[in-house]
Structure to design on (955 residues):
């Protein structure tokens, strides 16, 4: 099959045993009991090596994001808020609730900034298959398997030499549309068509061979990959940031109030620089806001080196020694718009003084400075256009090793192993401003020679200070930028060690089986000990919040925990070849986890498989899963950060909340109707860890039907119902604000602090507390569908058809107990986050032509439309919106691929994804982080046609 939709229809079915031979027993994801049956009681989607090559993608994250069960998370198309990693998010329960395994063993935390496993550590070219199990699996694999498990089975048994080279790029015709028209109305540059950009080059070498007369095998893999950057300025629909400025009729370019040449709050109102002479004029938001989009990376550049090795050696017929080793080094840069003065508070010691020689008469007039000794307060928002974009240079280097012994002792099989993994992280943040130096560089006086100098140079407190002249156009000097632009440094690591042993047997060998079946009871028993450590150190610039463009301090974190697990699993055949029961099997599993933090959890599951006839199977499973808090959630110090919200109900000239409501949040009568809202829709919050967090608990149910009415046809339908309680998260700041406005409850209102301007964003003193707690609930229901059909066409070759689709019935959230639930299925936005379409599917046809070695494939991918969450009739979501932002339209993508095997040594593949060059849907309102360039590039094919070529040589 070209694409396997379930474990029942895998790409490599077990062949019948030859006479006198027994079937080989293997483990299937979701069970530790080795069995000759390749089916699973829980639904498992399998993507084989051939499918991966047909996808044409060289990133594991994009491979998984094409599956309907997977929702967008961190990846190469995230810039503002990027962790530098790539993660997988099953059922939208969050990447931390998806367990990632390699050959059945977990990966370490991907980064001290994002503890979810980093998919960049896994080379796509080395994957034999991917098994995706959705639903709780903590009883089998331990903590984090709340939403499910993604198990990468690697090509660890290879003989020969294989060399692959790959080249890919994007081809895009600028298709125009409402977003492009918005740019043209503002006279912003709109790019021309792109013949080839966003280029990707990679090459890898696979070596393997047997030794010791076939008793051993060793495999080594070397890989290199480089991806070019792609700016938002290179696509017409991202040439300007729409940013919530749509009108009733059309999309409009918005931007940031931290503008160029500046936005100055003075006694004369909001003013800006008019010319090189220092004249001033009123600041007009509609035309003066800064278009921050074009300099943001639409896809980050990266360079990656990988190495993996696998070996096995049969010490005896009953004992095998095996090893795994892997290394990856990934460097990437996340670039966003320039830094600057993000609401610099020029008051008190930083007040503007009459003696500043840069001040023109117009500025002295606007500031109310009439004579020597006078000072004026101002709030300054100015973009550092002269210095260029902020560049976050991130590097992750990982090492992982496994050594183990497995074999047989009598009727028992055993697998004892040790594994260790470590990720080193370093970050250098360039082109940000120092808040402390801003104050000094703006405090300018004339020296004895009549030259403008910093006051701190005159009094000796900072002899390196260089004056910063923002009071007239074209007066900022390179020397001033060199002084103001301050790098920030972070470094850290994550480490993981695991020791474990698993024992399993077929108790039928001891006569333990039911009289109604010939198969014995299978059991597995095991023990694991795991230690997780994490540390992140930040320099003074980060830790003190001195970097102006960070939204607050970035604090270091360090901590560790360990856990001891004891687990057992049983598979009980009940009936075999009975009336209305070709087979009936029951499954049960249990795990006890004891954490060094004092927490204890019990995870368990039960399942049943019933085949009334050989061509039909009904399967059911229930899983209670648990997830303990990770090091970041437990130990992160509290600090300031940003969150997204469509608007402050108490801001603007016509607030949507009443004065009485706003007073509950700290608004005075004098401020009401005069509070400036955040143009960028970003506000301040305080986040941080909590060492008293309890483990999350989840319940998941699946009920499915597998049909194989004929040899070459399989059909699957699986309903799922999943729920997690005690979700570890900070209470969303927007929810706290809404609850305070609507109820006046002190437990919410006490968490809100407005600054002296009445805003929730302008000064660092404004914040809403959103530290980690065990809060509300998330639940989801839906149906997974799959089908595979192979048709032999005689002289015309063969045709393989495959289908996989997911219907999302609901995705409900409750922010805290008693707050009420809201359903995000079919929605996206600042509350619901990434798009959650109610239907997604993928249909593929592969034609094995009658011409030797030639295969052709076509794939249709569909993503149903979604609406903005503010359009919901649920009071917890309902909000103001305009027609152009109401929905993101459906998208249908056609992918084409061809493969030609010249001979048994050489194969060429060529293809194009998004062959029709469909633009992504765009909106003026998108979720923070995952929303980038007015759309969701981790969800939609945002960059145009993706053309790829692959040449594989085997010897």
């Amino acid at each position: 099959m070209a694409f396997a939709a379930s474990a029942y229809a895998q790409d490599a079915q077990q062949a019948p045993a030859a006479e006198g031979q027994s079937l080989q027993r293997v483990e299937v994801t979701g069970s530790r009991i080795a069995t000759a049956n390749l089916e699973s009681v829980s639904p498992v989607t399998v993507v084989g090596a051939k499918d991966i090559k047909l996808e044409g993608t060289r990133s594991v994250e994009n491979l998984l994001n094409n599956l309907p069960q997977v929702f967008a998370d961190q990846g190469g198309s995230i810039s503002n808020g990027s962790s530098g990693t790539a993660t997988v998010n099953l059922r939208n329960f969050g990447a931390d609730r998806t367990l990632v395994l390699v050959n059945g063993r977990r990966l370490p935390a991907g980064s001290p900034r994002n503890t979810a496993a980093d998919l960049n550590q896994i080379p796509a070219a080395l994957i034999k298959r991917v098994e995706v199990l959705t639903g709780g699996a903590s009883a089998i694999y331990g903590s984090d398997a709340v939403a499910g498990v993604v198990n990468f089975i690697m090509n660890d048994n290879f003989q020969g030499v294989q060399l692959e080279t790959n080249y890919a790029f994007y081809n895009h015709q600028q298709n125009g549309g409402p977003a492009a028209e918005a740019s043209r109305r503002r006279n912003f540059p709109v790019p021309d068509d792109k013949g080839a950009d966003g280029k990707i080059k990679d090459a890898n070498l696979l070596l393997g061979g047997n030794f010791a007369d076939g008793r051993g095998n060793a495999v080594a893999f070397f890989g290199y990959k480089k991806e070019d950057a792609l700016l938002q300025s290179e696509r017409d629909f991202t040439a300007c940031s729409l940013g919530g400025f749509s009108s009733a009729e059309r999309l409009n370019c918005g931007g940031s109030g931290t503008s160029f040449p500046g936005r100055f709050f003075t006694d004369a109102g909001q003013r800006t620089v008019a010319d090189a002479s220092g004249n001033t004029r009123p600041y007009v938001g509609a035309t003066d806001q800064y278009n921050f989009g074009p300099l943001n990376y639409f896809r980050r550049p990266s360079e990656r080196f990988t190495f993996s090795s696998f070996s096995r050696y049969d010490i005896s017929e009953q004992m095998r020694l095996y090893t795994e080793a892997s290394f990856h080094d990934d460097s990437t840069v996340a670039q966003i718009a320039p830094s600057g003065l993000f609401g610099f508070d020029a008051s008190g010691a930083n007040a503007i003084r009459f003696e500043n020689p840069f001040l023109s008469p117009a500025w002295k007039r606007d500031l109310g400075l009439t004579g020597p000794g006078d000072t004026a307060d101002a709030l300054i928002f100015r973009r550092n256009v002269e210095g260029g974009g902020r560049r976050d240079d991130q590097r992750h280097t990982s090492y992982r090793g496994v050594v183990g012994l497995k074999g047989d002792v009598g009727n028992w099989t055993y697998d004892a192993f040790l594994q260790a993994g470590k990720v080193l992280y370093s970050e250098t943040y360039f082109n940000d401003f120092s808040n402390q130096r801003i104050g000094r560089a703006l405090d300018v006086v004339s020296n004895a020679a009549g030259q403008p100098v910093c006051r701190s140079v005159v009094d000796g407190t900072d002899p390196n200070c260089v004056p910063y002249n923002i009071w007239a156009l074209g007066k900022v000097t390179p020397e001033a930028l060199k002084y103001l632009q301050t790098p920030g440094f972070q470094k850290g690591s994550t480490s993981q060690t695991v020791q474990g042993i698993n024992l399993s047997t077929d108790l039928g060998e001891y006569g333990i089986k039911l009289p109604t079946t010939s198969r014995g009871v299978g059991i597995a028993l095991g023990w694991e000990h795991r230690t997780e450590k994490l540390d992140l150190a930040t320099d003074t610039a980060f830790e003190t919040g001195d970097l102006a463009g960070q939204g607050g301090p970035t604090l270091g974190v360090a901590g560790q925990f360990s856990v001891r697990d004891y687990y057992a699993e049983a598979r009980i055949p009940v009936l075999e070849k009975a009336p209305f029961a070709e087979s009936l099997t029951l499954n049960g599993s249990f795990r006890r986890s004891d954490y060094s933090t004092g927490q204890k959890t019990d995870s368990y599951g039960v399942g049943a498989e019933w085949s009334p006839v050989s061509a039909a199977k009904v399967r059911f499973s229930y899983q209670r899963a648990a997830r303990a808090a990770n090091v970041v959630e437990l130990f992160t110090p509290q600090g300031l950060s940003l969150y997204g919200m469509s608007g402050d109900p108490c801001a603007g000239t016509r607030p949507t909340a009443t004065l009485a409501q706003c007073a509950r949040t700290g608004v005075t009568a004098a401020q009401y109707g005069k509070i400036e809202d955040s143009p960028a829709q970003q506000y301040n919050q305080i986040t941080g860890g909590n060492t008293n967090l309890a483990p999350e608990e989840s319940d998941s149910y699946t009920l499915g039907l597998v049909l194989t009415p004929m040899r070459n046809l399989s059909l699957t339908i699986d309903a799922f119902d999943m729920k997690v309680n005690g979700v570890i998260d900070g209470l969303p700041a927007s929810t706290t604000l809404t609850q305070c406005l609507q109820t006046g409850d002190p437990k919410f209102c006490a968490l809100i602090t407005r600054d002296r301007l009445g805003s929730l964003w302008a000064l660092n003193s404004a914040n809403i507390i959103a530290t980690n707690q065990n809060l509300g609930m998330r639940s989801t229901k839906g149906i997974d569908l799959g089908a595979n059909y192979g048709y032999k066409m005689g002289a015309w070759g063969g045709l393989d058809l495959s289908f996989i689709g997911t219907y999302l019935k609901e995705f409900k959230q409750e922010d805290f107990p008693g707050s009420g639930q809201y359903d995000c299925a079919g929605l996206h936005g600042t509350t619901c986050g990434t798009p959650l379409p109610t239907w997604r599917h993928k249909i593929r046809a592969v034609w094995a032509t009658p011409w030797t070695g030639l295969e052709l494939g076509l794939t249709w991918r569909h993503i149903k439309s979604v609406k903005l969450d503010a359009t919901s009739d649920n009071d917890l979501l309902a909000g103001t919106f305009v027609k152009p932002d109401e929905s993101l339209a459906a998208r249908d993508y056609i992918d084409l691929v061809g493969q030609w095997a010249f001979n048994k040594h050489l194969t060429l593949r060529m293809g194009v994804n998004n062959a029709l060059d469909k633009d992504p849907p765009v909106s003026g309102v998108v979720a923070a982080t995952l929303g980038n360039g007015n759309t969701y590039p981790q969800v939609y094919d945002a960059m145009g046609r993706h053309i790829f070529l692959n040449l594989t040589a085997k010897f």
Notes: Confidence is low (pLDDT under 50) at residues 1-24. The radius of gyration is 30 Å. The CA atoms of residues 203 and 669 lie 66 Å apart. The chain has 14 helices and 50 strands.
